Amino acid sequence: MAVDVPSSTGTAGAAAPAPARRLGALASWEATIIALTVLVLVIASLTVDGFGDAGNAVFLLLDITPILLIALPMTLIVMTGEIDLSVASILGLTGAVMGSLWVGGMAIETIIPLCLVLGAVLGAVNGFFVTVLGLPSLAVTIGTLALYRGLAYVVLGSNAVADFPFAHTGWVTGTAGGGVVPNLLLPLLVAVVAFGIALHATPAGRGIVATGASDTAARFAGLATLRIKFTLFVLSGVVSALTGVLWALRYSSARADNGAGLELAVVAAVLLGGVSIFGGKGSLPGVVAAVVLLASLQNALRLENVSNEALTVVTGGLLIASVLAPNVLRAVRRRSASARASRAR
Amino acid sequence: MSSRRGLSLVLAGSLGLTMALTACGGGTTRESQAQQPAAPAPSSSAAASADPSAEIPEGLKIAFLPKQLNNPYSDIEAAGGKEAVEELGGEYSLVGPNDASASSQVSYINTLIQQQQDVINIAANDPNAVCPSLNQARAKGIPVVTFDSDANPDCRDVFINQATTEGIGKTLAEQALELSGGSGKVAVLSATANATNQNAWIEVMKEELAKPEYAGVELVEVAYGDDDDQKSFQQTQALLQKYPDLKAIVSPTTVGIAAAARYISSSDYKGKVAVTGLGTPNQMREYVKDGTVKEFALWSPADIGYLAGYAGAALKAGQITGAEGETFEAGRLGEYTIGADGEVVLGPPTTFDASNIDQFDF
After folding, report:
1. Which of chain B's residues have a Cβ under 8 Å away from the Cβ of A284?
2. Which of A57, A198, A253, A331 could covalently link to B129 via disulfide, CB atoms 3.0 to 4.6 Å apart?
3. CA distance B146 to B157
4. How confident is the model at residue A246, as a pLDDT?
């Protein structure tokens, strides 16, 4: 079987590309997105009233948190060529369970770890269908998207649980010592760095890239691709559950419809960040930049009273551009390369 | 295997992160929580006491945040708010999500805080989820008025209530009396059997009907159309088969009243059985015009927004603080008094009939 490992993916085991070439790959879409993000942040801080101050930074971070957290494992999953669309439903179901356990009188310190375990189980169900039964993850997680959301309604109905302890809800929305640094910032940075290192600097990460580049080749190279995928689905479940807990605490409201539709925002950010939907290609810095870009654009445009419709159009346009641009770039590069080749002849 | 170890590390890292999160208290349960003081609820008014003679300053930035944009009902409420803000010489702005979700409303509240608006008027999608943000706004001196759909009373200054249960129940009883001509059988076509609002209204209506002045009116049945057009239509049919001498059907739900009117207008009962209750003018216009429906009622959504606009300005100016018994002027609607829990009741529902229905478009 022909094994085609795209050169720009980097490290599929033995054939590590030269540093210069890796830099070249990074200089493509990810670099564009990172530059664009910095540009938007700078321009918005200078021109949009109320964007640059500390209060807004806290709001921005709170808006970013759920998407960024779930985007971390989602990046890894999409890199392997799979997808998990059930993340927002896991978030909702976790919140619903958290709410009903709290009403039942359990201590919040017990509930939160239980919720993470629940997330692991829900993720493992996805992983089981995909890796053991060999079903396509798109179909499986569309199914569990509906199933988990349905279960959330079974657990909580149309009720809302709102009396979570202020020590916890206040911590999530608050800043360290009442200053300007949000409490969530440090844990979030730690999570981003941990995932970045795991993907880009560990054998596990190289395994993920190799799996996505070519599942067959990776398996022949001795990688347990199914096990990698299963672990990632479990990880995605745990992180989604953690996000569900944070969501319920941030909004002081556990409802069955918490986070509905969030999966699309996450997938959008991951794709905009330059991760190939076919797997094998992408970087975490690109995804983080894309999350920040989308959120700060929205935030700035809202402050400028730009209508919702325009916001949706801008987001959609960016997404199309993200899918289109790399292809156009590649086509241009190929043409210039062949032109050079013919000139050399 | 090394790749597994790497992944487990990430997993362990995320778990550790949560442990850090959970480590901020020891064994907090709902019960132990109940004994502790609730979250601090700031007051947005600079002055501790109201100054009824305070002037409303020009150029107040008054923002409206309805449940969602591009919803015909919300649009009319907001238009009423705009009218009030323009009368007050203020700066009106309208923002809101497309999806009627609480989380997107929170983002908009934060935006309004950053824009340093002077007043926030909001129809809350979730009474609790918007609370922390609303309280942040109030801590910064931005008064919060809820309208249409209240937030938790701890996180707003004033709630504009469209109508009280009493007011609606009484209106329904009056309609039954009037349209039955003072005596005869009437039936109620409600939403679902456990609809909170409808049941409360019907309860008040029954209490009213027990009074001597309603002695001639006999409520024979409460039927349930489940707010489903087809089922409401069939229930109307069944009611008339059962009670051919029925004088009136009172439907306190917009779905029910429209379905009942549709059935009656296309049957032999047209002109013999009156249909009334709560409906919207656009839905009921054709039945009013063809004589099936003589009158029906609903609160005016524009007046809700209008009153909210004035209440917000009065709060910002310090004329009121949201305490019971304070009064303020609300333009063409006249003077209002704040009731218990900071509630301001708009007043009795508006009655629509052939003479005024064309003035309304919602």
Report:
1. none
2. A253
3. 8
4. 95
pLDDT of residue A1: 37
Region of A53 on the Ramachandran plot (φ > 0 left; ψ -120 to 50 alpha; else beta): beta
Whether A156 is in a domain gets the answer: yes
Burial (CB < 10 A; 0-12, 13-18, 19+), residue B335, is exposed
> Locate tokens 């060999």: which residue?
A134
CA atoms B76, B82, B85, B91: torsion sign: positive
Q: What is the pLDDT of residue A2?
A: 40
Task: Give the number of domains in chain A.
Answer: 1
Is A13 among the domain residues? no
B38 pLDDT tier (thresholds 50, 70, 90): low
Element (H, E) at A294: helix A284-303
B91-143: pLDDT as tens digits: 999 998 887 778 889 999 999 999 999 999 999 888 888 988 999 999 999 99
From chain B, pick out residues whose CB is under 8 angstroms from the CB of A312: 98
Q: Which of A13-22, A159-168, B135-144, B281-290 has the lowest mean pLDDT?
A: A13-22
Size of interface A-B (CB pairs under 8 A): 181
* Minimal Cβ distance to A165: which of B33, B115, B128: B33
pLDDT of residue A207: 92
DSSP sequence for B275-328: EEEB--HHHHHHHHHTTS-SEEEE--HHHHHHHHHHHHHHHHHTS--S-TT-EE
Q: The complex's ipTM?
A: 0.75
Token reading at B251: 């439907």
What token pair was written down for A105? 């009188």
Name B190's bridge partners.
B224
Q: CA–CA separation, B346 vs B162, rounded Å?
A: 5
Q: For residue A219, what is the enclosing H or E element?
A: helix A215-220
Asked whether residue A159 is domain-assigned, the answer is yes
**Which of these ranges, B34-48, B233-247, B340-354, has the smallest mean pLDDT?**
B34-48
| A234 contacts B28? CB cut-off 8 A | no
* Count of Cβ atoms closer than 10 Å to residue B47 Cβ: 10
Give the 3-state secondary structure of residue A56: helix
**Does pLDDT of A234 surpass 80?**
yes
Q: How confident is the model at residue A200 (pLDDT cuts 50, 70, 90)?
A: very high
Residue A42 lies in a domain: no
Could you tell me the domains of chain B? Answer: 61-162+301-346 (3.40.50.2300), 165-298 (3.40.50.2300)
Tell me the helix, strand and coil percentages in chain B, rounded to 5: 45, 20, 40
Could you tell me which residues come within 8 angstroms of residue A101 by beta carbon, excluding any fewer than 6 positions away? A111, A114
Q: Is B29 on the interface with A (CB under 8 A)?
A: yes
Mean pLDDT of B57-86: 89
Cα B126 versus chain centre, distance: 13
pLDDT recorded at residue B297: 92
Angle at CA of residue B28, ends B23 and B31, nearest 5°: 175
Pairwise CA distance, residues B119 & B141, whole Å: 9
CATH code for position A110? 1.10.3470
Q: Which domain holds residue A97?
A: 51-325
Residues 83-102 of B with CB under 8 A from A: 93, 95-99, 101-102
Contact A259 B103 (CB under 8 A): yes
Of A319-323, B160-164, B261-265, the least confident? A319-323
The answer to whether B6 contacts A187, with C-beta atoms less than 8 Å apart, is no
Q: To the nearest whole percent, how much of chain B has pLDDT over 70?
A: 89
pTM: predicted TM-score of the whole model, two decimal places = 0.77
**What is the per-residue pLDDT for A15?**
42
